[in-house]
Task: inverse folding
């Protein structure tokens, strides 16, 4: 009997706590309902503004920017220094990568133009400018982005900054492209070898064999993998 009384007492206390919570919540809402409604409406306005901005501004600007890309890309493909400069700067009738990147900010095409501008500078031997634009390239296009990280790794390697090179090769190696990814993995494994990290090197070569066997065979990686395994086992 006493036990039942205790249970009944606990239930009553829980009900009172629950009722107090509900009462306080209702009182709080009634007191601040104008502010709450204002915040909700404000959030909806911001969301709607973002949707309209993307649909009626960004999409239009991205289309305009995309139409401008064919000329500088053709000049980049030509590859000689005069063409590369035209790819960057454009001419009297056509925009170059630099003006597209700057004139169509926030668009996907502006982002891509930064990547191509970096490649142009790299081909021209202007490595500081190349690094600057390549590092501005944001991850919106996976294949190009992973390839870009590998190029940045190459630039750091040339500067003798092995730690930064490894960092960017590791980023590049997370891609899934059947061509670029095994190359990035190979570069990463080679860096591990130079740092005497033979276990990491062996594991990286193994990833190439497991996931990209065609490239593993084509690139004759087996000899490097065997050496790394032998070194790692010592």
Result:
């Amino acid at each position: 009997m006493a036990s039942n009384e205790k249970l009944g007492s606990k239930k009553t206390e829980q009900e009172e706590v629950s009722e107090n919570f509900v009462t306080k919540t209702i009182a709080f809402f009634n007191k601040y309902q104008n502010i709450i409604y204002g915040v909700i409406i404000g959030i909806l306005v911001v969301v709607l503004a973002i949707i309209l901005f993307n649909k009626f501004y960004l999409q239009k600007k991205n289309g305009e920017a995309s139409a401008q890309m064919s000329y500088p890309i053709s000049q980049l493909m030509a590859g000689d220094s005069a063409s590369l400069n035209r790819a960057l700067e454009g001419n009297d009738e056509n925009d170059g990568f630099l003006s597209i990147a700057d004139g169509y900010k926030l668009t996907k095409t502006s982002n891509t133009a930064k990547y191509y501008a970096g490649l142009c500078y790299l081909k021209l031997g202007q490595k500081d400018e190349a690094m600057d634009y390549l590092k501005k390239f944001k991850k919106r296009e996976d294949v190009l982005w992973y390839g870009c990280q590998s190029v940045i790794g190459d630039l750091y390697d040339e500067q003798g900054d092995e730690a930064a090179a490894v960092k960017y090769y590791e980023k590049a190696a997370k891609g899934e492209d059947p061509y670029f990814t095994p190359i990035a993995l190979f570069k990463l494994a080679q860096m591990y070898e130079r740092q005497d990290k033979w276990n990491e090197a062996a594991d990286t070569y193994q990833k190439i064999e497991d996931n990209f066997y065609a490239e593993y065979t084509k690139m004759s990686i087996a000899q490097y993998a065997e050496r790394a395994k032998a070194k790692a086992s010592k």
Notes: The two ends are 76 Å apart (CA to CA). The CA atoms of residues 150 and 172 lie 5 Å apart. Confidence is low (pLDDT under 50) at residues 4-8.
